[in-house]
From TrEMBL, chain A:
Biased composition (Basic and acidic residues): 113-126, 444-459
Coiled-coil regions listed in the entry: none
Source lineage: Eukaryota, Fungi, Dikarya, Basidiomycota, Agaricomycotina
Membrane-spanning parts: none
GO cellular component, one term: DASH complex
Family of the protein in this entry: Belongs to the DASH complex ASK1 family.
Compositionally biased intervals (Acidic residues): 224-237
Keyword Nucleus: yes
Organism: Crepidotus variabilis
Protein name in UniProt: DASH complex subunit ASK1
Keyword entries, A-Z: Cell cycle, Cell division, Centromere, Chromosome, Cytoplasm, Cytoskeleton, Kinetochore, Microtubule, Mitosis, Nucleus
Automatic annotation (TrEMBL), chain B:
Example of a GO cellular component annotation carried by this entry: DASH complex
Superkingdom classification of source: Eukaryota
Pfam families per UniProt: DASH_Dad4
Family in the record: Belongs to the DASH complex DAD4 family.
UniProt protein name: DASH complex subunit DAD4
Chief place of localization: nucleus
Location in the cell: Chromosome, Centromere, Kinetochore; Cytoplasm, Cytoskeleton, Spindle; Nucleus
GO biological process: attachment of spindle microtubules to kinetochore; cell division
Keyword terms: Cell cycle, Cell division, Centromere, Chromosome, Cytoplasm, Cytoskeleton, Kinetochore, Microtubule, Mitosis, Nucleus
């Protein structure tokens, strides 16, 4: 076995002899008789056949017993090599922030079209109605455009690109199908060149502002998706550089999938990267489907002040500031700034970089179904993240409509009770400036205790209180950095003012609402929907104003509130209740009044508030506006959905920035 | 009478055919195994390519930064 015999050279090829007399049979005794010769020839033939058979059998034996096991041993033996190669491949992928399609990807790529079809099916199912409407007038346009822009951004996210490295990502195809379904309905979107797509997008973008007024006035859509997207469009189109918070808010069905997926795979710094990528034109990505290379703007080795065009491409690797890509460095710097953990020493860098994966990368070991569970627990979404947002919003809508359709006096008395109770809770909460996390929990606890006292319509009430708790919780979480330092200041510190004010108001209301609730509740009917609407509207405004503190470009109407935002926010849980009770005062005293200044009962507290803030709509949206919004029927579900999705977005941000920062600082990152 | 040699040769031919078919099967299986191995080792190839590229880049960087060094 050790040495093989040298292979004998092949004998000459047999040729048929023309003259049978010349045939020479080797080993044949030509001297014998003919019959003997025939016999001998037969035997020679048999021997030859036996040789052939033996050889074939040998071949088979060798194949079965030697070659095949050897190959199998080889494949087993190269297993560690493959593992090592996998590691190194992912290592290089992370280092270069690219995605290298491997052999396995071809199978997953083949799965993508099915998912895409499913998405487009659902899109078209919903988009058929859209098409009819959009062809009639342009009401629907802004939605489409908005979703297009969002989609093109989200689908270019490295996290998403890492998930499916093909040009035909589900979201992109779906979005383009949806967005251009009105014009190029049957034209497959991938057939268009990217330039055409871009020009169309630009065209629609210019159409957008004109279509907006129509949108608010004449939109006839009742479906949930349409509502959510229209309202969010009005919010978002005013501010082109959106905050990342807004992104999580308006996510119709297929988008939602992407958002979640995107959160799953890059929960750590996806949101920051998303903002980073906003300036990058989508054309480059469309041109390079397979490996979503980052644009030069996101060159990790580019110094923050450097010009990308003048980058020589040479990186001095011994320079310590270049060791890690810029994005990661910044993220880590933020974390170090905000959190208590000291800056990691340099030797830690490798481990850290493995933890804080660049969003584009998905090492095969780490990208596993284990991550979703971890992220959901990390983000603190146990409560809200478990139920799908859509279902929850639908449920909220159903319940709210039900309650609105039901007679109002049913919840009137109970509502007054509830408001008092909440008021007490709130004031007690706000007088003692507790840390935001604690306040959140205690608040929730209080609400759970008040749950027991309510017998009628428990689901709606509990849900509404749940939501309002969420609002307040959000607010406390988001503004956590602000009120605490202000409380330490000796100047016109807001918490102290707030507490005194609230004491006053509390006493007032505890008297007034007792007496008034009997009278006005029948007429004014501040039902649970009102409670939530006013509270939700006010808190929602606050959220926006705080989001705009980073961005400086949220919506226009929030500017007034945003100016007051610092002062108002801590008071807000209380303000929400005031708004509710304010309805009662209006109805009781003066129907044409604007609320606080006129009501004699709330005169003291209200006057003080107005003096301080010199604005009617101190408490966010005026109560009447919010009430009108509730009656409009469109905004019913919007409130709930905003809350839910806001919470989720906030959770992601909190997790991304170590639970302290309001939001990732997108403004500084693009450079 | 029958030729006994012909009978024997027929039997031999039959065996040969059987053996060849078995060999063909075996070769096909072997091909399959080799394909699998090759596919599995594609990652090794990718890694090797990446390493080569990385080495080239490092070489380039070292060359380029040599002047700035001292």
């Amino acid at each position: 076995m050790s040495e093989q015999k040298p292979i004998p050279p092949n004998p000459n090829r047999w040729k048929p002899n023309l003259n049978p007399a010349n045939i020479v049979v080797p080993g044949l005794d030509t001297e014998a008789s003919t019959s003997d010769q025939i016999e001998q020839i037969e035997q020679l033939i048999t021997i030859k056949l036996q040789n052939i058979d033996e050889n074939f059998s040998k071949i088979h034996n060798v194949l079965a017993n030697k070659l095949l096991p050897a190959v199998k041993r080889y494949s087993v033996g190269t297993e560690p090599v493959r593992e090592a190669a996998k590691f190194w491949t992912s290592f290089y992928e992370q280092a270069a922030q690219i995605r290298i399609p491997t052999f396995d990807d071809y199978s997953t790529v083949n799965d993508v079209p099915s998912e895409r079809d499913e998405n487009t099916m659902s899109e078209e199912h919903q988009g058929s109605a859209v098409e009819v409407e959009a062809s009639a007038d342009h009401t629907q346009r802004p939605d489409d455009i908005y979703e297009t822009t969002v989609n093109s951004e989200t689908s270019f996210l490295p996290g998403h690109g890492a998930f499916s490295s093909t040009p035909a990502t589900a979201a992109r195809i779906a979005s383009t199908n949806q967005s251009y379904s009105s014009q190029v309905s049957d034209d497959p979107s991938w057939a268009q060149s990217p330039l055409v797509k871009l020009s169309q997008e630009l065209k629609h973008f210019s159409l957008q502002p004109e279509a907006q007024p129509q949108n608010s006035s004449s939109s006839t859509f009742d479906s949930i998706l349409e509502d959510s997207s229209t309202d969010s469009t009005e919010d978002e189109t005013v501010s082109i550089p959106r905050s990342a918070k807004g992104k999580a808010k308006e996510t119709p069905q297929p988008l939602l999938k992407n958002v979640l997926r995107h959160n799953l795979y890059s929960a750590s710094d996806s949101s920051t990267f998303e903002n980073n990528l906003k300036q990058i034109s989508p054309l480059k990505f469309k041109a390079k489907p397979k490996t979503p290379l980052l644009d030069k703007k996101s060159n990790p080795y580019l110094p923050p002040s450097g010009d990308s065009s003048s980058w020589s491409g040479v990186v001095d690797l011994r320079d310590r500031s270049v060791l890690t890509p810029q994005r990661q460095r910044q993220g880590r710097g933020d974390a170090n700034k905000s959190s208590t953990t000291p800056g990691a020493p340099l030797g830690d860098d490798d481990d850290d970089s493995f933890e804080a994966l660049p969003p584009g990368m998905s090492p095969p070991v780490l990208m596993s179904p284990v991550r979703p569970a971890r992220s959901s627990t990390e983000l603190g979404l146990h409560r809200l993240g478990q139920t799908p947002i859509r279902e929850a919003s639908e449920r909220i809508q159903r319940d709210l409509i039900k309650s609105a359709l039901k007679s109002v006096h049913k919840s009137g008395l109970k509502n007054a009770k509830l408001s008092q109770r909440q008021q007490v809770v709130d004031s007690s909460m706000s007088t003692v400036p507790t840390p935001p996390s604690l306040s959140r929990y205690t608040r929730r606890h209080d609400f759970s205790t008040t749950d027991s006292s309510i017998d009628k319509d428990p689901s709606l009430e509990s849900m509404i209180r749940h939501l309002s708790a969420d609002i307040k919780g959000n607010k406390y979480r988001r503004t956590s950095t602000k009120p605490i330092p202000k409380a330490t200041n000796a100047g016109p510190s807001i918490p102290s003012y707030m507490s005194s004010n609230q004491h006053l108001q509390q006493s007032d209301f505890s008297i007034d609402s007792d007496s008034d609730s009997m009278e006005f509740n029948d007429t004014a009917n501040p039902s649970a929907a009102f409670l939530m609407a006013s509270g939700g509207a006010a808190a929602y405004m606050d959220d926006d104003s705080f989001g705009s503190s980073n961005n400086s470009s949220d919506s226009l109407e929030n500017d007034g509130v945003g100016a007051l935002g610092d002062g108002i926010v801590p008071v807000h849980p209380f303000a929400a209740n005031v708004a509710v009770l304010d309805d009662g005062f209006d109805d009781e005293d003066d129907d044409s009044s604007d609320g606080f200044e006129v009501g004699p009962a709330g005169g003291l507290a209200g006057g003080q508030v107005v003096d301080d803030f010199e604005d009617e709509t101190v408490f966010g949206v005026g109560p009447r506006q919010s009430v009108a919004g509730v009656y409009d029927g469109r905004n019913l579900r919007m409130l709930g959905e905003d809350l839910l999705e806001d919470t989720i977005g906030i959770g992601a941000h909190m997790a991304a920035t170590g639970r302290v920062e309001e939001s990732p600082t997108p403004a500084n990152w693009g450079r | 009478m029958e030729n006994p040699h012909a009978e024997r040769q027929a039997v031999l031919l039959e065996r040969i055919v059987k053996n060849t078919s078995k060999c063909t099967e075996m070769i096909l299986e072997l091909n399959h195994c080799l394909e699998e191995v090759l596919r599995a080792n594609a990652s090794v190839k990718t890694a090797a390519d990446l390493a080569t590229k990385y080495r080239k880049n490092v070489q380039y960087n070292l060359e380029a930064t040599k002047g700035k060094d001292s």
